[in-house]
Amino acid sequence: MKTTKYCLVFLIVFCLAVTSFSDEALALQRYFNDFIWPVDYNSSNYWIGALDYYYDGEEHTKYRAGIDIYRETGQPGNIYAIADGEIVYKYDGCPHKNNINDTCGKQFGNHIIIKHGENLYSLYAHLKQGSLTGATKVKAGDKIAEMGSSGMSNGPHLHLEIITSISFSNNGLDYTIIKKDNTFDYFKYNTNYLKKYAFKNGLLNQKKSRYYEWLNANYSETSDGYAKYKGNNHNYSECKWNDSGYCIYGEEYPIKLTSMSPTTYQSVKDNTPIRLRPYAPEPIIKRLSKGEAVTVIAKGKNSKGNTWYLLDDETWVYSENVKAAGKPALPSGVGIEKTGSNEAWLFWKPAVGAISYEVEYLSPTSNGWKTDPDYKDKTSTSYITTGLGAKVYQFRVRAVNSVGKSDWVTITYDGSTGSSR
Asked: Is the pLDDT higher at 262 or at 335?
């Protein structure tokens, strides 16, 4: 029976809101960060051997978060903090072995973890023993270590990861990584580095990689085994745009973005395309129906002068195809069906302009309307409500977006007969 035992509902809703905000903040971080490259950033090239999928002569299907960076011949292999932060973990107990099967230091070998902010950490692995900094707080560009080959490593290099959720234990002496992000996303939009990246040729052939199209549009294989930037001798003004919307010399979409508070926009027509990048020739990820809602987190003009909106899922929509939303429409088709002795299925049709919903119930013993704790996925349009007895209940549903909330739509359910009205 639904009682006050669900007093934690507010906390649950609050946590969901915080999680949503964090995801949006991370999406923005990928575009607006000023992270520096972690190794000898004055070098002429940055040799990259792995982008989430590791390449050693054949395509590996197993996902491996992070990027592997190798030093140029003659470079000392200094490693720098990518941003300001606090060193929250450091391990320096692994010898140099060049052993791909070495599990020392959780396979990372000697490594450092820096906290840059809430839910944002960087991890630097396979470091040279004895080279790790003694500092506890660092600034972007501070040297923190040197490249080594400790842990699961077949040669001196840096393995860098971005972590968005981590749990520490044993007074900070141990940790468990809960969630990682796609590390190269935090660097690929930095045009200062675009011309310096060099990738193992094999990375351009890995179709499972999220970077497959981007790599092939911007880099070409060379006889020395490394793919180099296509446009080293050309400026934006010299670009000729190919059928995919890329400059044939390799510059990828110069666009200056302005951050926005997450705002609900609605499609002004049916079949509005959502694209992978902010140019009309880009692949269409999906299409919106008229009135369908999206969440905009940034806007900017591309090199052709057209304004595009960046969405919270890192896709793009042309500004002329959407408009700022008003309050969402009423949910329609609200119904409820008995599914068990003490449970029922509550459902409704999607409301135009909605990005989430709220559900409340009223029973003879609830002392007013209460949030239904069984409704956990706030974007879903159906769920199973439990704890029902042989009583008459009322349920009400309303739609929500960044502008406001619709009116409630109410339905009555008789728990003894399973009927509704």
From this structure: 335
Q: 54: pLDDT confidence band, cut at 50, 70 and 90? A: very low
Of 324, 358, 380, the last residue of a domain is 324
Tell whether 141 is covered by a domain.
yes
Last residue of a domain, one of 269, 301, 324: 324
Q: Could you give the strand order of the β-sheet that contains 409-414, starting from the edge strand earlier in sequence?
A: 370-371, 356-362, 392-400, 409-414
DSSP state of 35: P
**Residues 227 and 201 sit within 8 Å (Cβ to Cβ):** yes
- β-bridge partners, 89: 113
251 within a domain of the structure (yes/no): no
In a domain, 25, yes or no: no
Distance CA 126, CA 276 (A): 34
Residue 396 pLDDT class (50, 70, 90 cuts): very high
**Are residues 118 and 193 located together in one domain of the fold?**
yes
Count other Cβ atoms within 10 Å, centred on residue 179.
Answer: 11
Residue with tokens 């195809």: 321
* Residue 77 φ/ψ region, left for φ over 0, alpha for ψ in the -120 to 50 degree band, beta for the rest: left
User: What is the Cα 412 distance to its own chain's centre?
Assistant: 40
Please indicate, yes or no, whether residues 319 and 335 belong to a single structural domain of this protein.
no
Residues pairing with 165 in the sheet: 179
DSSP codes joined into one string, 331-379: PEEEEEEEEETTEEEEEEEPPTT-SEEEEEEE-TTSSS-EE-TT---TT
Distance of alpha carbon 250 from alpha carbon 242, whole angstroms: 10
Domain span at residue 161 reads: 33-228
Cβ(69)–Cβ(126) under 8 Å? no
